[in-house]
């Protein structure tokens, strides 16, 4: 099954590359903002969004990816009881990835586009502080800690373009880092600004 998917992706990429050579390369040039929802292993929700400038087949992108699990109802009630005056915002277990990426887009004759990109990211991971939580009193809520590292993000993105104004997209993205490397799939929309 994997080999069939890889074969289809390569055929589409080759078709896109030859079509881009024949077509008008500037037809998708624009500044886009986008938002996507998806899944990754180990977390309930994944959101990604950002902005990218596409020019002459290349693109420059600033994006943010967030994955997290919501706190349980019991954790929320314990937090409210402990911080009766509101307290600091309650944290969730998860990660956030802020990336700058550069990539190449290949378009087919009319509406299809495949993009490959890579870059550099700041990666933040929030976990429960097990050292504190194992010794805390029953009435105290869990404590969290956030760690930071630098990551190497990469993406493969397919979009169905309606001219320069609107697009549907499906993205496979990943990030290699020392805290929590991940691979995710998401889908969403992009809006052209001009």
How would the global form be characterised?
Answer: elongated
Strand content: over 45%
Oligomer: single chain
CATH topology term: Porin
Ranges with pLDDT <50 over ≥5 residues?
1-23
Instruction: List the strand order in the largest sheet.
Output: 1-2-3-4-5-6-7-8
Q: Helices and strands: which structural class?
A: alpha+beta
H-E string: HEEEHEEHEEE
* First-residue to last-residue Cα separation: 40 Å
How is the biggest beta sheet arranged? 8 strands, antiparallel, barrel
Rg value:
20 Å
CATH architecture: Beta Barrel
Number of strands: 8
Instruction: Please estimate the helix content.
Output: 10-25%
The pLDDT mean sits at: 81
- Tell me the number of helical segments per DSSP (H or I, 4 or more residues long): 3
CATH class: Mainly Beta
The tally of domains stands at 1
Can I get a quick summary?
The chain is α+β, with helices and mostly antiparallel strands and 194 residues long.
What does this structure look like?
Strand 4 and strand 5 form a beta hairpin. It is elongated, with a radius of gyration of 20 Å. The model is unreliable at 1-23 (pLDDT under 50). It has an eight-stranded antiparallel β-barrel with strand order 1-2-3-4-5-6-7-8. With 194 residues, the chain is α+β, with helices and mostly antiparallel strands. It has helices spanning 2-22, 73-82, 130-133, and strands at 30-40, 43-55, 58-68, 94-107, 112-128, 144-162, 166-176, 182-192. The chain contains three helices and eight strands; from the N terminus they run H-E-E-E-H-E-E-H-E-E-E. It has one domain: Porin. Residues 1-19 form the signal peptide. This is Outer membrane protein beta-barrel domain-containing protein. It comes from Pedobacter albus. Keywords: Signal.
């Amino acid at each position: 099954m994997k080999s069939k998917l890889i074969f289809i992706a390569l055929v589409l990429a080759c078709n896109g590359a030859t079509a881009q050579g024949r077509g008008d390369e500037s037809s998708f040039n624009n500044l886009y903002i986008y938002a996507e929802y998806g899944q990754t292993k180990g977390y309930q929700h994944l959101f990604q969004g950002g902005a990218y400038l596409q020019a002459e087949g290349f693109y420059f992108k600033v994006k943010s990816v967030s994955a997290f699990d919501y706190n349980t109802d019991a954790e929320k009630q314990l937090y409210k009881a402990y911080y009766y005056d509101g307290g600091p915002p309650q944290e969730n277990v998860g990660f956030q990835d802020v990336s700058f990426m550069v990539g190449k887009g290949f378009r087919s004759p009319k509406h299809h586009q495949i993009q490959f990109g890579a870059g550099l990211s700041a990666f933040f991971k929030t976990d429960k502080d097990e050292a504190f939580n194992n010794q805390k009193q029953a009435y105290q809520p869990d404590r969290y800690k956030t760690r930071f590292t630098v990551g190497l993000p990469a993406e493969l993105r397919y979009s169905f373009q309606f001219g320069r104004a609107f697009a549907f997209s499906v993205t496979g993205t990943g990030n290699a880092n020392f805290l929590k490397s991940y691979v995710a799939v998401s889908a969403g929309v992009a809006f052209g600004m001009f």
